[in-house]
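hey so i finaly got around to running the thing on Putative flippase GtrA (Transmembrane translocase of bactoprenol-linked glucose) from Paenibacillus algorifonticola. pasting the sequence first so u can double check i didnt mess up the copy paste, my clipboard has been acting weird all day
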Amino acid sequence: MSQGTMRQTIRQFIMFNMIGLVNTAVDFMVFSLLVWLGVYFVGAQVISYGAGIVNSYVMNSWLTFGKGPEQRRERKFDKAQAIRFTILSCTVLGLSLPLLYFVSEKMLVNEWLAKLLVTGVTTVLNFIGSKKWVFRGK
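ok and heres what it spat out for the 3d tokens, dont ask me to read them lol
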């Protein structure tokens, strides 16, 4: 990997994680609002998680993995890319649940620390999947 490619990947990884923080805020705010409005917490979680996924797709496609100013100006919706993003998001969520259970229950790690460890693993998997599959070049 060339030094320029390595720098670009590091920049993308940092941006990806900054957007992840924004997604977490969106998720939390939507969840809080829905619960405050009387929506049952399970339904609120599904809706708020979905809001975070939509925000993540939009921001990452424009800011993290955009190919340049022209693509960002067009803001053209790519249906296949959106489907790949949804598949990846659901797959990573599906992997995180048994991994969280294993680390917490079988390895007897505190739930908060287990969540932190699993989040580290799933963040890397999500980034690689996004870079190599979801937002790959045409």
